[in-house]
Structures are given as structure tokens and as C-alpha cells.
Design goal:
The structure is a single chain. By secondary structure, the chain is mostly beta strands. Strands 1, 2, 5, 6, 7 and 8 form a 6-stranded antiparallel beta sheet that branches. The relative contact order is 0.15. Helices cover 4% and strands 37% of the residues.
Length: 475
């Protein structure tokens, strides 16, 4: 293993209360080159890794190592954490490159026994035998192929927790508005499930193999199962530069989507659910020409390009599967992870490429009913995503701020987040307990409602009151 250079020293502090400072403090504080990040009331956060090469997907192995896909380097990196007191301080100083392949860019997954690792490029999914203790990958094999296309090149990987023989692979569109997505046989804008127990001597062919979990999904980068009900959800990046009639409505529409895909395994004989893209999109702001009865979360059609004549607002809402929740436009959700109770789903919002649309660039929590396994908010809610970690100055984004990409949740329900643009990893932890084990935003989260800058309640972590705001939050 190699020691991290000074600028990439791994160190974290998770102060639970003022009194915990007596148990010892982390001796190193990493500093960001942009305005300090802010955690919501009820949460604490810390920059713990820097100096990475565009980190994207992350996952923990059985030994507690964090595995990171560094997309610019095309590497999977193992980060070893050690700790004297896991409650207050998480620190480490070693990394190891497990594999270096230029095509690796985002997806990563690990088998339940921790002995098999999966990673993906735009065209293929690879599998290795993994030895966590030795930090080695052996016996590389391609298991899915033929899914390359331009524009959206990441291929999210997800192994079902209830059916670990099912590997889900998400493939996005080849253009902003991609007419090939309307062809179910194209394999574009789909999530497919591949039964690994049936893998033969040749890799699965993406467009013709597996079972379609959902299609008409422009670019569903994040996938997760609810830990109690096993209900499958994804977060979808919707279209840009949309017009309706002669009106340019792209600033506020369409919204990004949280989609529900049922319980795995999908029936191979059932009609695969179509979520509407490329003809139907989810409405965020009803302030569009001829809105009729459309509300946030309704599906609508548009005129860039013209859809087939039989596609109308009415057919969009009767013939296609609507989103379970809709988020503000241009937020670009890239991952979703549940906490162990199933009361919260954390979503990383990567933010817009458009400097005139400073949305996103944050991690938010969506309240779930743990027993029912569905969001607490109604489908037409505009306040379901409650901010957890935000940039202090979103006007400086996207060039001078963190940009959330991959998420991982450990056994302590701490959230680990990669920032691909800055080469960093943050850790976020709740500082309050749920009251009565209930879901929702109860239990003292203190997040308020709505997005940052729109009524959210913000506070620096308790330790900052002891150590000084800039001393602790010099991220």
C-alpha cells in the first residue's frame, strides 16, 4: 500500500455532542479551496479525503475499506480506514490501486460475501475475484457488453439485496432527446436485470439479454432498494432545452424524477413499465403554456422535437408510469441510498452544467414511511427533498464548489459522498435519534422544509461552537 500525500491525508471527525471533545479530537483538518460546506441542523459533516482523480461510485467492502472508482484515472482504489474511537474520529492514511483500466468511469458493486467485485465502463461490466485483506483483484471477466453510446456514458451497477443473483445495470440515452429510447429493443434509457446464476461462457448482450425493470428512463443513475420492503427506486436526470409551443420552459421544467419500479424480480412475461421518455416528461413548475389540470409531478408533452400526434398530456398521464416524486429541474441526481431504518433516502444532486441554473450541488434527504416503504410526501410535493449538506455559496457553482456524485452508507448510518469535480470525499452523520423509531423528518432533524435558501434551517455542528467556526469547518 502507498501512504497518501499530505494533501490527500484521510481524516474525519464526527462529534456527537460538545462533551465528546474530551474523548479526543482529530488532529488534522482538511481544507477545501472553495467556501466551506454547511450541514443542516441535526447533521455534522467533515471533509475526509482529497487529492483523488474524479471520484464517482463508492462502496464499502466486508472489511470496512472504502472502494472508489476514480473515473479520470480509470482506477478502482481501496481506502483503508483506521480509528481509535469510531464515534468521534475516523482516520486513515493508506490507499491501494486495485485495478487501472481507462474505461472504468462510475459503476461499482460488491457481492454479499465480499469476494466478488464488479465495475463498469460505458460498454462493458467487469467482474473480479476480490481479496479485501490482500487488496487484490484476480480473474477478470466481462459479464455484460454491447451498451456503448455517446452522451450518457455511465453504467450504474446494483446487486439486489433480496435477490443477490440479480445484477441491475442502468443505461442512459445517447442524446438529450433520443428517439431511439422509444424503441424497447434498442436497450437505451433502460434498467435491465441480469441473472448471474445463468451466465454462460459468453457475456450477456445488453440490448437482447436480461429482463427489463423499466424503460423510458432518460438517465437513471442512482438505484436502491428500500431496506424493509425491498421496493426498488431510481433517480432520473431529465431533459434540457425543452420548449412547449413557442415558449422556452427549460429553466423550470422538466423536473428530475424519483421512480418506483416495484419489487424484484421483475416478471419476464409482464409488460415492462414505460416511464415516458422521450415523449413525456415530469412537470416541476405548472407555469407553462396551456397547463390545464397539470400539477407538479404530472407528465406533459412538449414540442422540441415534436412527439407523435397520438402523444398528448392526457395520454402521458394515462399510458405511462409517472414519477413517485419530482425534484427541481437541473438538480441532476446521481445516487440514492437508504439509511438502515428505511426512514430516509439520501440523494446526491450533482447540479447543472448551466451556470445560469444554480440548482443542486448538495445532498438531500427524502422522508419515507419505513413500514410502507414509500415517500411520506405526496407525488405533487415540491418540498420532499430536504437539504442535508450544501455549498455555502451556490452562486460559485459549478466551478468553485463541491459536486456530489456517489453515496455510500456504512453500518453506523454515516453517509459518505464523493465530489467528482474537486477529487474529495465527505462524511455526514446525524446527531439526533429518531423518536420512537418513526420515519419522516421527525426525531429532531431540524431541517425545516424546502431547499436551502428557501426556508431551510441551518446550523454549524456542535463542535464548531467549541473549536471555533473556521477551525472546525475549514473544509
Amino acid at each position: 500500500m502507498r501512504s497518501l500525500p499530505a494533501q490527500a491525508t484521510i481524516v474525519a471527525t464526527l462529534l456527537q455532542a460538545v462533551g465528546t471533545s474530551a474523548q479526543g479530537e482529530c488532529s488534522v483538518n482538511l481544507r477545501s479551496e472553495y467556501p466551506a460546506a454547511r450541514a443542516a441542523e441535526g447533521y455534522q459533516a467533515r471533509l475526509i479525503v482529497s487529492g483523488l482523480s474524479r471520484p464517482r461510485g463508492i462502496i464499502f467492502d466486508k472489511s470496512g475499506n472504502l472502494l472508489v472508482v476514480e473515473s479520470r484515472a480509470g482506477e478502482v482504489t481501496q481506502i483503508n480506514f483506521s480509528t481509535d474511537d469510531k464515534v468521534t474520529c475516523l482516520a486513515g492514511s493508506q490507499t491501494k490501486t486495485l485495478v487501472s483500466m481507462p474505461e472504468l468511469n462510475h459503476g461499482i458493486e460488491i457481492s454479499p460475501d465480499g469476494k466478488t467485485l464488479y465495475a463498469s465502463g460505458s460498454d462493458k461490466v467487469y467482474r473480479w475475484d476480490y481479496d479485501a485483506a490482500a487488496g487484490t483483484l484476480t480473474n477478470q471477466r466481462t459479464i455484460v457488453q454491447n451498451m456503448d453510446n455517446p452522451d450518457h456514458v455511465t453504467r450504474t451497477l446494483y446487486l439486489s439485496k433480496k435477490h443477490p443473483e440479480l445484477l441491475l445495470v442502468s443505461r442512459g440515452s445517447a442524446a438529450n432527446i433520443d428517439p431511439l429510447s422509444a424503441d424497447i429493443n434498442s436497450g437505451i434509457s433502460q434498467i435491465r436485470a441480469f441473472n448471474l446464476s445463468t451466465l454462460g461462457s459468453t457475456p450477456f448482450d445488453y440490448p437482447t439479454s436480461g429482463t427489463i425493470v423499466g424503460w423510458g428512463l432518460r438517465n437513471s443513475v442512482g438505484i436502491a432498494e428500500h431496506p424493509i420492503t425491498s421496493g426498488l427506486y431510481s433517480v432520473e436526470n431529465s431533459a434540457d432545452q425543452v420548449h412547449r409551443g413557442s415558449a422556452d420552459i427549460h429553466e423550470e421544467n422538466p423536473g428530475e424524477e424519483l421512480n418506483f419500479h416495484g419489487i424484484l424480480p421483475p416478471s419476464p412475461n409482464a409488460r415492462p413499465p414505460n416511464h415516458g421518455y422521450p415523449y413525456c416528461l415530469a412537470l416541476w413548475s405548472p407555469e407553462i403554456p396551456s397547463p390545464g389540470d397539470l400539477t407538479t409531478g404530472s407528465q406533459f408533452t412538449y414540442t422540441s422535437p415534436l412527439p407523435p400526434s397520438n402523444i398528448t398530456d392526457e395520454s402521458c398521464n394515462s399510458e405511462f408510469v409517472p414519477p413517485r416524486l419530482t425534484f427541481q429541474s437541473h438538480m441532476a441526481p446521481l445516487d440514492i441510498k437508504f439509511d438502515s431504518s428505511g426512514a430516509r433516502a439520501y440523494v446526491s444532486f450533482h447540479g447543472s452544467w448551466n451556470r445560469d441554473s444554480p440548482a443542486g450541488y448538495k445532498v438531500s434527504a427524502v422522508a419515507f414511511d419505513p413500514q410502507r416503504g414509500e415517500p411520506v410526501d405526496r407525488p405533487d410535493s415540491r418540498t420532499a427533498a430536504v437539504d442535508v449538506l450544501v455549498n455555502a455559496d451556490v452562486s460559485s457553482c459549478p466551478r468553485n464548489c463541491f459536486r456530489p456524485a456517489g453515496l455510500a452508507v456504512d453500518g453506523e448510518d454515516r453517509i459518505f459522498m464523493t465530489s467528482d469535480s474537486t477529487g474529495e470525499i465527505y462524511v455526514v452523520a446525524r446527531t439526533v435519534r429518531d423518536e420512537g423509531g418513526g420515519g419522516g423528518n421527525g426525531g429532531g432533524d431540524g431541517l425545516g422544509s424546502g431547499a436551502a435558501g428557501k426556508g431551510g434551517s441551518w446550523g454549524f455542528m456542535v463542535g464548531a461552537l467549541v473549536m471555533g467556526v473556521w477551525g472546525l469547518w475549514a473544509l
